[in-house]
Write a structure and sequence with these properties.
Elements (H helix, E strand, L loop, with lengths): L5 E2 L4 E9 L4 H14 L12 H31 L4 E9 L7 E10 L12 E6 L4 H14 L2 E4 L11 E10 L2 E14 L7 H7 L7 E7 L13 E15 L5 H6 L6 H35 L7 H21 L16 H21 L5 H12 L5 H9 L2 H23 L1 E6 L2 H6 L2
Parallel strand pairs: 5-11
Antiparallel strand pairs: 1-2, 2-4, 3-4, 6-10, 7-8, 7-10, 9-10
Helix pairs in contact: 1-2, 3-6, 6-11, 7-8, 9-10, 9-11
Length: 436
C-alpha cells in the first residue's frame, strides 16, 4: 500500500507504492501462456513451446509490464481514495529489482494549486461608449471607394504626383557593381502608400514619362537583404508610365459592385452602419474582457502546474507553425522556435484558465442553455441564413463547446464588473479602434 505523500515542491508530490510479487502471479501465468501460443521456435509446433523457453523469452518483459500496470492501478485507486486533484499522469519509477519479493515504485505527480481570488472591489473597469456618426459611415464609404480605384494614364509630359501609380525600370549599384535584387523592369508601385523606401518614393515623384534620376539610398540596418543592409547604394530609375487614380462615384452602380442588388446607396449606408455597430460592440466587449482578466490575474498569486504550462506551450508552438504554414513559409513544420518564446504567454493562459474554473464552480457562472442559444442567435444574425448557421453550431459538440466558453467568459466579466468600480468613458470610433 502507498506510504505517506511527500511534498517535493509547491505542487510536486511523491508517494511510494508497495506490493508483493506474489500478487502478480495469477496474471503472470496467464500472460505467459498467451504469449507462448504465438511464440515460434524451430523444432516446436506453434503453441507447443515449453514453458521454460517462454519464460526465458518473455519473463522479464512480463514482470515489468505487470509491475508497472499494478503500480499504476494502485496509484489511481489511492489518488481516488485520498481525493487528490491530479494534474496529468504520474511518473512511475521502479525502486526495487524486478525479482524482489516486495516490489516498490516511486510515483511522482503534480496537484492543482489552491486558487484564492483576492479582493477586487477597489479595481476599476473602464466601459467605453461610442456613438456611431454619419462621419464614420462616410469614412467607410471612402475606404470602399479607394479599394476599387482604377488608374488612367496621365499625359506623357505631366510629372508623377502623390497617389499616382508609376511604372519604372530601376537598377542599383554598390561601389559601382550591381547587387542581387537591385534591378527590375516594369516595376509598379503607388507613390505615398509606403510600398517603397522614402528615398525611392521621393526620387520618383515629379518625374515625367521618359525622364530618369540617379540618387543615393541608405538601406536600414535590419533590411532583409544582408548584402546591402545598413549600406548606401546608388539607384537609377527611368519613368515609363504615370497613372492617376480614378475613384468610382457613389451611386447605384457602386452599390451593385458591393453586392447590394436593391436599395442603392441608401442600403449601402444602412449595411455599413450595421457592420460598424457590430464592430463597436465587438471591440467594447473585448476591452471589457481584457480588463476583467487583468484584474483577476493581478488579484491572484499561486504556483502553476509545470505539466499544464508545458502542454500549453506545445499548443502555442503548434499554432505558430500552422500560421507559418498558412502564410506559405517553407518548411514551417520544422521552423526553429526559440526556447521559452511562448512560456510567458503559456503561463498567463494557464493561470487565467485555473482562475476561471475556480470562479465558475464557486459562483455558478457556467453557461446556461438559454445563454448559449442567445449567443448563437446573435452570431447567426449577421449571416444570410441564420437558421442554417444555428443548425451548424448545434450539429457539432466542439462548436457548442466554443460558444459555451464565450458565454462563460461573459459571465465572468459581468461578475467582475459587479464587484469592481465601473467608469463610463465616451470615445470616438477612431479612438476605440486604437485601444488595445
Amino acid at each position: 500500500m502507498p506510504q505517506q505523500i511527500e511534498n517535493l515542491g509547491a505542487l510536486e508530490r511523491k508517494v511510494t507504492l508497495q506490493f508483493a510479487k506474489s500478487d502478480l502471479l495469477p496474471q503472470r501465468q496467464g500472460k505467459l501462456k498467451q504469449l507462448g501460443k504465438n511464440l515460434k521456435i524451430a523444432g516446436f509446433r506453434p503453441g507447443k513451446v515449453p514453458a521454460k523457453m517462454v519464460e526465458k523469452q518473455y519473463g522479464q518483459q512480463v514482470d515489468f509490464e505487470l509491475s508497472f500496470d499494478h503500480a499504476s492501478n494502485q496509484f489511481f485507486e489511492f489518488a481516488k481514495a485520498e481525493k487528490i486533484q491530479l494534474v496529468g499522469q504520474p511518473r512511475l519509477e521502479p525502486k526495487s529489482e524486478l525479482d524482489a519479493e516486495q516490489i516498490e515504485f516511486d510515483a511522482y505527480f503534480e496537484v492543482f494549486p489552491e486558487v484564492v481570488i483576492g479582493d477586487i472591489s477597489s479595481a476599476q473597469v473602464t466601459q467605453y461608449q461610442t456613438e456611431l456618426s454619419e462621419q464614420e459611415v462616410d469614412n467607410t464609404l471612402e475606404l470602399l471607394r479607394k479599394q476599387r480605384v482604377v488608374y488612367q494614364a496621365r499625359s506623357s509630359e505631366l510629372p508623377a504626383q502623390t497617389d499616382d501609380q508609376v511604372t519604372i525600370d530601376f537598377v542599383g549599384t554598390l561601389d559601382g557593381v550591381e547587387f542581387s535584387g537591385g534591378k527590375a523592369d516594369d516595376f509598379k508601385f503607388v507613390i505615398g502608400q509606403g510600398q517603397m523606401l522614402p528615398e525611392f518614393e521621393a526620387a520618383a515623384i515629379a518625374l515625367a514619362v521618359g525622364q530618369e534620376r540617379v540618387f543615393p539610398l541608405t538601406f536600414p540596418i535590419d533590411y532583409h537583404g544582408k548584402d546591402v543592409a545598413g549600406k548606401t547604394v546608388e539607384f537609377k530609375i527611368v519613368m515609363k508610365q504615370v497613372e492617376y487614380p480614378v475613384l468610382p462615384e457613389i451611386n447605384d452602380e457602386f452599390a451593385a459592385s458591393l453586392g447590394i442588388a436593391e436599395g442603392g446607396v441608401t442600403q449601402v449606408r444602412a449595411e455599413i452602419s450595421k457592420n460598424l455597430a457590430r464592430e463597436i460592440a465587438r471591440r467594447t466587449k473585448g476591452m471589457l474582457k481584457k480588463q476583467a482578466m487583468d484584474i483577476l490575474s493581478n488579484a491572484c498569486a499561486f504556483d502553476l502546474p509545470a505539466f499544464l504550462v508545458s502542454q500549453e506551450e506545445e499548443r502555442l508552438i503548434e499554432m505558430a507553425r500552422q500560421d507559418l504554414e498558412q502564410r506559405g513559409v517553407p518548411n514551417a513544420k520544422d521552423a526553429p522556435i526559440p526556447e521559452g518564446m511562448f512560456t510567458p504567454q503559456a503561463k498567463e493562459r494557464v493561470k487565467l484558465g485555473l482562475i476561471l474554473n475556480s470562479l465558475v464552480k464557486e459562483h455558478g457562472l457556467k453557461a446556461s442553455p438559454e445563454q448559449i442559444q442567445s449567443e448563437i442567435e446573435d452570431q447567426a444574425a449577421s449571416y444570410d441564413d441564420p437558421q442554417e448557421v444555428t443548425r451548424w453550431y448545434y450539429s457539432d459538440p466542439a462548436r457548442l463547446s466554443d460558444i459555451e466558453s464565450i458565454v462563460m467568459e461573459s459571465n465572468v466579466v459581468k461578475y467582475v464588473m459587479e464587484k469592481a468600480t465601473v467608469i463610463d468613458k465616451n470615445v470616438t470610433f477612431a479612438e476605440l479602434s486604437q485601444l488595445k
